[in-house]
């Protein structure tokens, strides 16, 4: 009977040890074995909640308000804008919202009044979230750079719907007419920090982005170099002046000694 009890005790002990071992193995597998990443719930973009024509009308309102920041919100980091035709020196291909902000800042941002209206609106739908809009912009404005400005623009915009709403992926402004009262003057308008208007009239390169970027990025370094040069010249002049005074003092002392010796 004692032997039976002893055998039963050993069986229970063995079973408990096996159970503990299984628990330890399971815990180790949970902690150390690679696990598949948790599945993320995909968020799908819903259908458009506003019409593209409404966005175009809002963009026109921002243009008339001369609000460069608001105009820039219609573009993303990969948006491409092409201005062509009689642009008064602003022809070029601009990629990204910041570059596009640049052309608005140096054109719309220089106006004091703006009266733009839209005609011949049309759109081609590729899908509910992708379409192309075309229209004509008639612009009359006063600019500090070109005076009274008159322009007619054939605009084409490719719109895409996404997480940020409708945005323009590609845009072309083809200027069929452009005129500025200061440009009409014999010697052009006043000189500015962005004299693309003058470059265009003189047959120079009117590419605003490259010239503007050079001015923006190079100017601080040029200014620093000039300041460093002036500081260096001043330091050399001070040293030479100090040496000259020192020599004069030595000469006086030597002269005084000579007179004393005589």
Structure description:
- The chain has 262 residues and is an alpha+beta fold.
- It has 2 domains: 52-206, Nuclear Transport Factor 2, Chain: A (Roll), CATH 3.10.450.50; 210-249.
- It has 7 helices and 6 strands; from the N terminus they run αααββαββββααα.
- The protein has helices at residues 2-32, 52-64, 68-72, 97-105, 181-184, 196-201, 208-261; strands at 75-85, 92-95, 111-127, 130-143, 147-162, 165-180.
- It has a 6-stranded mixed β-sheet.
- β1 and β2 (92-95) form a beta hairpin.
- The model is unreliable at 37-43 and 186-217 (pLDDT under 50).
Topology:
Layout: H1 2-32, H2 52-64, H3 68-72, E1 75-85, E2 92-95, H4 97-105, E3 111-127, E4 130-143, E5 147-162, E6 165-180, H5 181-184, H6 196-201, H7 208-261
Parallel strand pairs: 1-6
Antiparallel strand pairs: 1-2, 3-4, 4-5, 5-6
Task: For this entry, give a set of tags.
47% helix, 262 residues, Nuclear Transport Factor 2, Chain: A, six-stranded mixed β-sheet, alpha+beta, 2 domains
């Amino acid at each position: 009977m004692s032997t039976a009890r002893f055998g039963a005790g050993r069986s229970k002990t063995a079973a408990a040890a096996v159970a503990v071992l299984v628990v330890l193995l399971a815990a180790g597998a949970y902690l150390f074995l690679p696990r598949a990443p948790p599945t993320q719930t995909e968020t799908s973009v819903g259908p458009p909640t506003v019409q593209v024509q409404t966005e175009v009308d809002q963009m026109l309102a921002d243009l008339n308000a001369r609000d460069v920041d608001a105009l820039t919100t219609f573009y993303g980091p990969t948006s491409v804008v092409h201005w062509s035709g009689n642009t008064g020196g602003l022809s070029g291909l601009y990629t990204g919202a910041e570059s596009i902000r640049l052309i608005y800042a140096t054109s719309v941002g220089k106006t004091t009044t703006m009266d733009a209206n839209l005609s011949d609106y049309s759109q081609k739908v590729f899908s509910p979230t992708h379409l192309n809009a075309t229209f004509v912009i008639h612009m009359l404005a006063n600019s500090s750079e070109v005076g009274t400005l008159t322009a007619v623009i054939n605009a084409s915009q490719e719109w895409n719907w996404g997480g940020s709403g409708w945005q323009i992926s590609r845009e072309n402004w083809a200027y069929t007419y452009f005129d500025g009262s200061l440009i009409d003057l014999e010697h052009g308008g006043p000189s500015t920090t962005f004299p693309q208007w003058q470059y265009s009239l003189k047959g120079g390169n009117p590419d605003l982005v490259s010239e503007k970027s050079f001015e923006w990025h190079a100017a601080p370094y040029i200014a620093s170099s000039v300041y460093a040069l002036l500081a260096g010249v001043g330091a050399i002049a001070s040293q030479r002046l100090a040496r000259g005074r020192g020599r004069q003092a030595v000469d006086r002392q030597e002269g005084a000694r000579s007179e004393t010796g005589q």
